[in-house]
Amino acid sequence: MNTHTPIDDGFVIAGRTYRSRLLTGTGKFKDLEETRLATEAAGAEIVTVAIRRSNIGQNPGEPNLLDVLPPSKYTILPNTAGCYSADDAVRTCRLARELLDGHKLVKLEVLADQKTLFPDIIETIKATEILVRDGFDVMVYTNDDPIIAKRLEAMGCVAVMPLAAPIGSGLGVRNPYNILTIVENAKVPILVDAGVGTASDAAIAMELGCDGVLMNTAIAGAKHPVLMASAMRKAIEAGREAFLAGRIPRKRFASASSPIDGHFL
């Protein structure tokens, strides 16, 4: 009997099932061709787009990101990167909906300051209330506070995205027990967003039980972005399989792999 659990056990966001648990950003690449190649190497199905920094049709005559990452192939996830107030974030989401013909799925992030890029939770909650009431499907960037994560879920967010570490820091999962607590108490997908630096960081996030990982800088900022995208894809798959398989418990001392209990010497 084949007891192998397939890695393509999809997860659902806003009623749609996805197989790839690696979500990728589209900024910081040297050009649109590298963006396309890295996205393909990552196997991503959802790609996030900073509306304030990327052209998806609002600037006629300029290169359009949607020409290399068409909505017919990818789920475009507009985000509110660069917004420091609820009002700015809501305005940006409404612009994205207009540019993408009524598209409702958005990634909300409201930042507190330029140095840390930590989320402003008060403004995030304010924006969440408005956007959910306005009919948006909100995937929300937040800190790794289990209480706030649960509150955002209760407000109607379709996914909660706690940071692993500050945006672009590459520090990896700094508070694994906070992430684990968020995962254990959630009824919506939990995706680590921000702070991943390399493949092992992505695997750790998945081993904790996260439904997925969103990253940009870790891929785009690598010496070889397309190769790193491929590595991240494998890490996400390996981490998911390890989570499903169930790791052995940690022990302080050795445990014989071939026990001799019951055998005559």
Please compute the radius of gyration using only Cα atoms. Answer: 20 Å
H/E element string? Answer: EEEHEEHEHEHEHEHEHH
Query: Which strand order do you get reading across the main beta sheet?
Result: 5-4-3-10-9
Q: Which structural class fits the helix and strand makeup? A: alpha/beta
Q: Give the strand content.
A: 15-25%
Give the CA-CA distance, first to last residue: 35 Å
Identify the overall geometry: globular
Helical content class? 25-40%
Overall pLDDT score: 92
Q: Based on DSSP secondary structure assignment, what is the total number of beta strands?
A: 10
| Total helical segments | 8
Let me know the largest β-sheet: 5 strands, parallel
Give start-end ranges of low-pLDDT stretches.
1-6
Task: Describe the model.
With 265 residues, the chain is of the alpha/beta class. The protein contains eight helices and ten strands. The strands form three sheets. A five-stranded parallel beta sheet has the order 5-4-3-10-9. The longest helix is centred in the last third of the chain and has 21 residues, at 225-245. It starts with 10 loop residues before the first strand and ends in a 20-residue tail after the last helix.
Please write out the topology.
Blueprint lengths: L10 E3 L2 E3 L3 E4 L6 H11 L3 E5 L24 E5 L6 H14 L5 E4 L12 H13 L3 E6 L3 H9 L4 E4 L13 H9 L6 E3 L5 H9 L4 E4 L1 H4 L4 H21 L20
Parallel strand pairs: 3-4, 3-10, 4-5, 6-7, 7-8, 9-10
Antiparallel strand pairs: 1-2
